[in-house]
Give the backbone structure.
Amino acid sequence: MQPGESFALRPGVAMPDWPLVPDPAGRAALSASMAVAGRRQRWSGLDAAEDALWQAVLQGFIATGQPPGQATLATASGLDAAVIPARLQSLRDRDLLVLDAAGRITAAYPFSALPTPHRVRLEGATQPVYALCAIDALGAGGMAGRDSMVESTCAECGARIHIATRGHGLAATSPRDAVVWSGIRYAGGCAATSGCALKPFFCSDAHLDAWRARQDPDGPGYRLPVAVAQQVGLALFVPMLRQPG
Ligand SMILES: [Zn+2]
């Protein structure tokens, strides 16, 4: 997908929300990641039942830090509990969530049921929630409509990184020179399990450069200041819980 190009996630809701990404590098990174993951093909044309179930999964993560159980999903989505396993499979086929062998939800963008390096504390939530990658962590607060604290580590040295988001902006970033790498993956497969390792935080440009030199010196991707990585995350995740009109 080209910068500025979007599709209808649900009637009246454009995905991604390009006006949230004024930065040119952010627009290029978002465009590349939308294209590589085949998101237009996989994410468009959700039916109302799939959409209701998907949003119930996301709201469960926001409320408790974990995916909701089937009884909660049935109540929240209005679907008969008997059809939920098959509906979850169809969301899995769209790469909107990840299931384990027993059919339990292990991830739903931007959230992970399993620990990751990126922990997000949403204002008002009783438990923190794990995010799949740096961009997901930065977009989670805006998606939930809440301020957030993102706690992560430098992928090169392990130094702690703390970012406070407020509305669609940043209230604080520590260390101040922290950056995000948005690696682009050309292989097929599930973006949650392979692509997210390519989108970490670094404490500095020097550590991003050292990491890239070891991992994949020519691997394509974009260096994004934290504020720009947040723009990319907002454009991708705010539409997911946006209601038409
Ligand atoms: Zn570092």
Notes: The chain is about 40% helix and 20% strand. Residues 154, 156-157, 159, 202-203, 207 surround zinc ion (CB under 6 Å). The chain has a mean pLDDT of 92. Residues 6 and 15 are 5 Å apart (CA to CA).
